[in-house]
User: Fold this.
Amino acid sequence: MPEHENNFPTLSVEPVSIVDRVADELRRALFEGELEPGTALREVALAESLGVARSTVREALGLLVADGLADRIPNKGTAVHALDADDIRDVCHARLVLESSGIERWDQASEQARDEVRAALTEFNRLTAGTATSQEITAAHLAIHRALAGLNESPRLLGTADALYAEIRLALAGVDRARGNVREQAHAHGDLVRLLERGHIAEALTDLREHLAGAEQSLLETVPAVDAP
Amino acid sequence: MPEHENNFPTLSVEPVSIVDRVADELRRALFEGELEPGTALREVALAESLGVARSTVREALGLLVADGLADRIPNKGTAVHALDADDIRDVCHARLVLESSGIERWDQASEQARDEVRAALTEFNRLTAGTATSQEITAAHLAIHRALAGLNESPRLLGTADALYAEIRLALAGVDRARGNVREQAHAHGDLVRLLERGHIAEALTDLREHLAGAEQSLLETVPAVDAP
DNA sequence: ATTGACTGATTGTCGGACAATCTCAGTGTG
DNA sequence: CACACTGAGATTGTCCGACAATCAGTCAAT
Assistant:
């Protein structure tokens, strides 16, 4: 018998370290809007509040910084990342690149990758039909776009896409205006996928471009206006 | 007078923490091939060897892991990332996406971004003409591609591109075969940029695709062959 | 051949310590 | 009043030492 044969492929126990738990808790707080952008994340305060050592908190903060969710200024501290207008534009442009590239690969993508797009769309429709938190709808919405980026079938590109969506969630945290264009968006996404299914790639691309332009516009409204000189 | 005006853009005092220095030293060792892929990076050994505390080494290792240059397995340790064939293919595909997108934006890109491409090309030509380390040539070669990715003018996309190039340098570490196709590559890049200058975007794209396919092929030769069952 | 127990090495987390640095209010000086 | 200096307090960066948890290998027992 081969040595490393895995006879129980469905079984797995992943050890979750305290650092991971702390990082997850911080992420949750960020996305729920409990911690506003710009808030200082003091190591000692967090350590006492969470009942862990400072070094543990420090390492968790390092993870958030690596994800782009927090900024660390040497000798000054770590703070919740605050996106300015340039950040928003950059995130949206990067999204456009990744998702467009995914769409262009629709034909060559695996059936599984395409199914993820369909599944994300139906889940989104299910949520918008019933009563769902604005948070949940946002998550489902992003899941669709994530699936589009997933059409690249590149773990690394999907990883950067995830980082982008995390930043978007950060920008949307606390905003929470249950905008009435949800139904409109639902149609837009449905149309987009329909175009893909029929092989109309070019049309799907322009659809996406318009959709993302709108998204950028509404995201830009979340950034506090700067005072002109 | 505005408060935060930067009258000396070239001046900056960046406080380099010990963690950063350790991380830089490790990166250097990785790229120079002193540390082979798969090598275990023991925290205590590194700490003693570098004369720093274990926690400092630990944090530096966290940076490398975040960059994808090392893998950390819980309770087992950190090791130099070893790329397999799938990794190579993924990195190359991701490169293609980012650099293609940059090329398509050639017309809309800023003059500065285009100049970076030209500068990288001339620097590459200068190095290949004279006597230069294989390391240096590789760096200059990657600088060209980095400039192509820079045409996106997106800090985030450029960041992921940098991560990809770091992985490539890792794969190329120690290989160091001064391949004779350098001259050929020089011509290829020159042609590519020439096509861009003349606005022949589509041709430039196919040029890039072929070039990257070749690069993928030679990169795949660096991964140790797996034993078939 | 499988199981179980033991050992040594390594990591994960903790707590405390101290110097370096930043912030800011206060103080003095012209 | 404007300005530079100073000092206290807070916070981070780094170090040290400690200990439990976990892992890899050995070796005996069944």
